[in-house]
C-alpha cells in the first residue's frame, strides 16, 4: 500500500498505510529461557508473542517488569509474566479508566526510575515498587497477577503443582502428597505410613 496521499478523485475506498494500521497496537515478544526445560517441553515453540489490543510495547514491557518486582521469581520465565500483561491489556481495552490507570502508572514508573523503567537497575526497581505499594496502580497489577500469574499450566509446571486432586482422582495422599522436593524429608514420627497401604 502506498503511504503517499491519493487524489480526491481516487477515493472510492479509503486507503490506510500499514504504519497507520498498526498505530496504537503493539506486540510483546520473547524467547523461553534455555533453563526453562519444563516450559520448553510444554510450549509448541521456544518463541512467544503477545498481540496487544490497547497498550503499546513499551508499556507492556514495563508492566511485565513491574509484575516481576511485585512477585519476584528469578527462574520463572517472562512468558508466564506475559500472561499478566495479557490480562491487563484486555482490561485496558475494555475500560478507558483502566487504560488511563495503567498508562499513567507506567509513566510514573519511568519518572521514578529516572526516565526509563526498563533500563533501571533491579535495586532501583525494587525501591520504586515498594514506594508504590497500596496505590491504585500497584493494586491493579498485583490483583491481576495473583490469578493470572499462578493459575495457569506454565506456572503449575514450573512450581511442580500437579493439579487438583478431584480432576485426577485418588486424592493427594496417594498422588503427590509427599513428593515435595523443596522441603526437607520429614521424620518417621511426623509422616507415619499410609493406613495399611
Morphology: elongated
Helix count, DSSP H or I runs of 4 or more residues: 9
Q: How do the SSEs run, as a string of H and E?
A: HEHEHHHHHHH
Distance between the termini: 72 Å
Q: How are the strands of the largest sheet arranged? A: 1-2
* Helix percentage range: 40-55%
Task: Give the tally of β-strands.
Answer: 2
- DSSP strand (E) fraction? 5-15%
Protein structure class? mainly alpha
Radius of gyration: 23 Å
> Can you give the mean pLDDT?
74
Largest sheet, strands/sense/barrel: 2 strands, antiparallel
Low-confidence stretches: 1-24
Write up this protein.
The protein is mainly α. Helix content is 48%, strand content 6%. It starts with 17 loop residues before the first helix and ends in a 29-residue tail after the last helix. Mean pLDDT is 74; it is low at 1-24.
